[in-house]
Amino acid sequence: MAVTDQAIERIKEMIVSGLLPPGTRLPNEADLSEQLGLSRSSLREAVRALTAMRILVARQGDGTYVSGLEPHLLLEAMTFAADVSHGHSARQLLQVRSLLEPPAAALAAGRLTGEQLEALRSILDRCAGDVEIEEFVELDIEFHRTIADSVGNPVLSTLLGILSTHTQRLRIVRGTSHSTARAQAHREHEAIWRALAARDAGLAAAASAVHVAAVEEWLAAGTTIGSVALDTLTPWPPARASAPPLSATRRDNPISRTV
Q1: Closest-CA residue to 218 (of 188, 179, 175, 178)
Q2: Are the beta carbons of 152 and 104 closer than 8 angstroms?
Q3: Coil, strand or helix: which one is 37?
């Protein structure tokens, strides 16, 4: 193990053991390097790395502190990995998204406030207008973030945001026919909103699952790995042709029965 990695592990051990609880100021560099038996240069590298991970927080003129260690803040360090994901890596992120987003939509159906539902309606109305692709992607992010945030779990909100970043969404839309992808996404968003407005958890989950499956199809259609097209691979989860209408019932709606 490299010396810097050893330094990182030693500091993490102090945090996990309770010697450096959240919010604690680290000892000065000279004392800490002596305590850990490390060179000051190795300690500096370790502190920089842990700061990038949001484990430590540097306060100018006041020293370095252990962060609050909130899980959703620590998870934000994963955003770069999602931004640079391509091919199978991007597909794997979408698979995880498909596991989390439909249940989140189901929970949101019972928790969205009237104000939040109006905000979602406003987002959809703006999407229906003649907006540039960048604005459309921003509105798409805002739509899904509002639904996730209504659940009241910042870890879930952060994870869902990481699993589909602005960079990744823009790449997927640009890899498809813009007008076709946007029109389909808008229809699917409308289906999700109608289910949420009706407080129908099962239908909200089903509509969300259809939407994520469609995004995966766009990714597969617009991405290749070497000479092998992703759309030649077995899709997961199975894609649905279109979003279910709000009037569909659990009994006669095959999509609802899978939720």
Answers
A1: 175
A2: no
A3: coil
Cα separations in angstroms, 195 against 131, 175, 239: 25, 29, 19
185 neighbors 85 (Cβ within 8 angstroms):
no
Looking at the whole model, is its pTM more than 0.90?
no
Q: Give the CB-side neighbour count of residue 162, counting CA atoms within 13 A.
A: 20
Distance CA 158, CA 143 (A): 14
pLDDT block averages, 10 residues each, the chain of length 259: 82 91 92 88 91 90 89 79 77 90 97 96 91 88 95 93 80 67 89 97 97 84 41 37 42 36
What gap in Å lies between CA 86 and CA 171, rounded to an integer? 9
Q: Among positive and negative, which fits the CA dihedral 140, 141, 144, 145? A: negative
The residues facing 63 across adjacent strands are 59
The Cα–Cα gap between 96 and 161 comes to: 12
